[in-house]
């Protein structure tokens, strides 16, 4: 299938990149009540909510900055030659409307939004927001069967609770997702884990349920290619969610995030691991924790949207592959 020209982005050769309304990658805006929604195959969506943040707030502003920086994304992948906008009908579906004053209501709103996206047969690529956003998204996408997951991060986000029993923070989403049967823990791999810790409770839980944790020391020792071979073996051919926390990347290259950890991959490796996702059945993905208040140059957001473009290339190729 060749995509409908309606779903092609505006070219910088036709309209300067500093002009026009900054939708994701200059794609058409197709909200959930749009008459052409049924034609969309992949939807780029903002989830501007960070009420799960426990350190430096700000990721609620991430989707807006990612949209702005995405005007620099062009039609063709310079490394792989993939032209995703010609492979699938892709659109900006707008933002979820969270409730910043009520955490549980916000998660319910996010889940309802993605239930509508899934019912329309659209595969979502989401810009957060903090990492708690992944839980309500998974409640929609993993409702019928547990998903596999490839998770790039410096933290496991597998903690039981924070601050005397708070079960819902950006440090707990995947613990809840496994407990709720949304993820198959034996098909989950977490890559890049590092930094100081409170204790080993999250890693002990991972070991107890079969989550494969690849710490950064192992990542650097083995190299991205070998690590990604194992990651793809773990998820196998199962429907897979890809979750990419921008703090997976070393803060020298991505400083604009709330909980940075030193010693991570450089910007090339950040793209390389995603290019190595070929063959994975990506049914949904997110890029989270970009925090504009700590990203004055916009470099973190540009790296984040570049990661999203690499994920999009795989998703577009798989839609009609």
Measured by DSSP, the beta-strand proportion falls in 15-25%
Determine Rg (CA atoms, Å). Answer: 18 Å
Shape: globular
Q: Count of DSSP helices? A: 9
Sequence of secondary-structure elements: EHEHEHEHEHEHHEHEH
Number of domains: 1
CATH homology superfamily name: Ureohydrolase domain
CATH fold descriptor: Arginase, Chain A
Beta strands, count: 8
Gap between N and C termini, in Å?
A: 9 Å
- Average pLDDT, rounded to a whole number, is 96
Question: What's the arrangement of strands in the largest beta sheet?
Answer: 2-1-3-8-7-4-5-6
What is the CATH C level class, in words? Alpha Beta
- Report the major sheet: 8 strands, parallel
Instruction: Give me the secondary-structure category.
Output: alpha/beta
The CATH architecture category equals 3-Layer(aba) Sandwich
Low-pLDDT windows of residues: none
Helix content: 25-40%
Description:
An 8-stranded parallel β-sheet has the order 2-1-3-8-7-4-5-6, with helices on both faces. With 321 residues, it is α/β, with parallel strands linked by helices. Strand 5, helix 5 and strand 6 form a beta-alpha-beta unit. It has 9 helices and 8 strands. The radius of gyration is 18 Å and the shape is globular. The chain has one domain (5-319): 3-Layer(aba) Sandwich (Arginase, Chain A). It has helices at residues 62-69, 103-119, 134-141, 173-179, 201-209, 216-222, 224-235, 267-275, 299-319, and strands spanning 42-47, 90-95, 123-128, 147-152, 183-193, 212-215, 240-245, 282-288. The model has no long low-confidence stretch (mean pLDDT 96). Helix content is 31%, strand content 16%.
């Amino acid at each position: 299938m060749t995509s409908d020209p309606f779903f092609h982005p505006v070219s910088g050769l036709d309209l300067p990149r500093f002009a026009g309304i900054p939708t994701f990658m200059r794609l058409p805006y197709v909200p959930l009540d749009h008459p052409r929604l049924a034609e969309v195959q992949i939807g780029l969506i903002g989830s501007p909510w960070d009420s799960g943040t426990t350190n430096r707030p700000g990721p609620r502003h991430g989707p807006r900055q990612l949209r702005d920086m995405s005007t620099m994304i062009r039609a063709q992948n310079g490394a792989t030659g993939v032209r995703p906008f010609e492979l699938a009908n892709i659109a900006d579906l707008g933002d979820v409307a969270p409730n910043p004053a009520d955490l549980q209501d916000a998660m319910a709103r996010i889940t309802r939004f993605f239930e509508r996206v899934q019912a329309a047969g659209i595969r979502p690529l989401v810009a957060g927001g903090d990492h708690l956003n992944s839980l309500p998204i998974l409640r929609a996408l993993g409702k019928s069967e547990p998903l596999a997951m490839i998770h790039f991060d410096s933290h496991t986000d597998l903690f039981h609770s924070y601050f005397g029993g708070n079960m819902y923070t950006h440090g707990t989403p995947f613990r809840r997702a496994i407990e709720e049967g949304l993820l198959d823990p034996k098909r989950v791999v977490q890559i890049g884990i590092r930094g100081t810790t409170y204790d080993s409770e999250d890693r002990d839980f991972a070991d107890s349920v079969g989550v494969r944790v690849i710490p950064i020391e192992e990542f650097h020792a083995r190299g991205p290619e070998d690590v990604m071979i194992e990651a793809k073996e773990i998820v196998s051919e199962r429907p897979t969610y890809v979750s990419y926390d921008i703090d997976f990347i070393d803060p020298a290259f991505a400083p604009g995030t709330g909980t940075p950890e030193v010693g991570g991959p450089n910007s090339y490796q950040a793209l390389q691991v995603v290019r190595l996702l070929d063959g994975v059945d990506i049914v949904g993905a997110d890029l989270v924790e970009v925090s504009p208040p700590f990203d004055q140059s916009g470099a973190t957001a540009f790296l984040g949207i570049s990661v999203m473009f690499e994920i999009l290339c795989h998703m577009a190729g798989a839609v009609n592959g």
